[in-house]
Amino acid sequence: MSAATDLFVNLVGDSVLVQALVGGIVIAFMNLFGASLILFIRDPSERFLDGALGFAAGVMLAAAFTSLILPGIDAAGGDPLPVLFGVLLGAAFLDQADRFVPHAHYLLTGKKREDAAQPSGDVPAVDDAKVASVVLFILAITLHNMPEGLAVGVGFGNAANATGADATAALADALSLMLAIGIQNVPEGLAVSVAAVNAGLDRRTYAIFAGVRSGVVEIPLCVFGALAVTLAAPLLPYAMGFAAGAMLFVISDEIVPETHSRGYERVATTGLMIGVVVMLYLDVSLA
What we know:
The chain is mainly alpha-helical. It has helices spanning 3-12, 16-36, 46-75, 81-100, 102-109, 129-161, 164-198, 203-231, 236-259, 265-285. The chain has one domain. Helix 7 runs antiparallel to helix 10.
């Protein structure tokens, strides 16, 4: 057992539910930390935010393959079909979730989504703080935290279902995924806080709100993911594919378009490449 996995087991024990709970707390805390940076980074530039979000996208991109898709294929005995089906299902689910919150993209970007179902009545103003806070909360749940928390939980569930050396490798994958999601939650939390401040919310109030939101959502989803694949082992490849597909959808549909819409495409791309490298290093060093 590697030093990292050995230390983790010594600290939290062998229970998959406790491990998943700790994993959820870690990624939630990192989201809170990122959201709280708005207290110190008073006016982050668009260039900085695009680079930071590009980094988050790179981490998620690499994690989707190294910690979810490839281990999922291994869990299916080398058959890629269950994982690929899960990938498509996860993307389809996020696509439908996006259509149910048509105001979210508008509130974050000031631009309407052509493919979103149009609600009745006027589109609410971006500076409507109450409407903005509610929609931002829904957006964070459906498009970001859900696949992240689920992915970490599924990773720990995969480790619990494995035996021997495979269990050690699977736990290492789960830890690298937990750290990767936690790291990418920092710029994500900051970006959502900035969007909320731009919508008229108080810096300190929303920083705390964002942290509570992440704690409420990511922790139970992490535990749910671990519990689901532990109780129903055949679901594991599908669950890992689902989490990966949801993450890939968020990258392509939300993060990349936004980081390439303000003239800092090269900065965002550089951030993405650095994020991929960081995730790959974590995956190898924790193995």
